[in-house]
Design brief:
Structural class: alpha/beta
Largest sheet: 5 strands, mixed
Radius of gyration: 19 Å
Distance between the termini: 32 Å
CATH architecture of the largest domain: 3-Layer(aba) Sandwich
Helix content: 25-40%
Number of helices: 9
CATH topology of the largest domain: Rossmann fold
Strand content: 15-25%
Order of helices and strands: HHEEEEHEHHEEEEEEHEHEHEH
Number of domains: 3
Length: 274
């Protein structure tokens, strides 16, 4: 996919989805760049946060946020059972597929974070048909994000020592600055790195001595954890551990990095990289 559907393009269909809660429809893609669409190839899904869109004709997709703050209560209720689980044996054996062959739901989820086919290839994200999971890799682990009702929502597989990369967690340290962002999840890490930032994903809130050593090589550390009790407590512990080693900034937002609009995120990264 070469580009995304703009917010203004998706907004044309707001009236079509008006009054529908958490529904999905197919409709003709108006002014489709691949030619006139008469087969309802545009897939639209109404979520609590906004409208997901993907056209099977031109391959463009995008997300229009209609709510500035996702409903934490709805999210918690939806994800209360089986949020995450670690497994010993590799549950992700067998073939995987690249972006163009992903099913619609994981493809729309990926696009909703303003990430595209090129990003999926850059970070090695693939679809695992046997488990119905999108595989999010890092140096030492692979997280499988479940779709189509698969629980737990995330399955985490830690690679054997001989297969691990040089860092203890996902660490994308080629942003070219003396600042590093510390985040909880892998998709947030991918998105910050796409915006030009160095980033370390904890895949949780536990901050180890190895994480401390990696952060200590930077002059500035920006802590961006989730706006929930675990994130706030974890951020406070990280701040205490890093104080005296470097400049530490706690960034507070109701949105996670992956939920933040790309242009806004670029501005934030540029500000702290300066």
């Amino acid at each position: 996919m070469k580009s995304l559907l703009s917010s203004s393009e998706i907004a044309k269909y707001k009236e079509t989805l008006s009054g529908l809660a958490m529904s999905q429809i197919k409709t003709n893609h108006l002014d489709c760049p691949a030619g006139t669409d008469t087969k309802q190839r545009l897939y639209l899904k109404q979520t609590h946060e906004g409208i997901l869109a993907y056209c099977h004709h031109c391959g463009k997709g995008g997300f229009l946020r209609t709510s500035r703050e996702p409903s934490r209560l709805e999210t918690l209720l939806a994800e209360k059972v089986g949020e995450a689980s670690k497994v010993k044996g590799n549950p992700f054996v067998g073939p995987t597929t690249q972006f163009k062959e992903w099913p619609t739901e994981p493809k729309l989820w990926w696009l909703s974070h303003e990430l595209n086919e090129e990003d999926a290839n850059t970070y090695g994200v693939t679809w695992h048909p046997d488990s119905h999971r999108l595989l999010l890799p890092s140096c030492i682990l692979v997280q499988g994000r479940g779709f189509y009702g698969r629980l737990p929502k995330y399955l985490t597989y830690h690679k054997p020592l001989e297969e691990r990369g040089p860092y203890i967690s996902v660490s994308l340290f080629d942003g070219g600055s003396t600042c590093v962002f510390v985040v909880e999840d892998l998709v947030s890490a991918y998105k910050i790195h796409k915006c030009g930032g160095n980033v370390l994903s904890l895949t949780g809130t536990k901050f180890t001595d190895a994480h401390l050593n990696m952060c200590a090589i930077f002059e500035r550390v920006v802590l961006w954890t989730d706006d929930d009790p675990a994130g706030i407590v974890g951020s406070a512990a990280m701040y205490k551990a890093l104080s005296g080693l470097c400049e530490v900034i706690t960034f507070r937002s109701t949105l996670e990095p992956k939920e933040t609009e790309l242009e806004t995120l670029k501005t934030i990264v540029e500000r702290y990289n300066a």
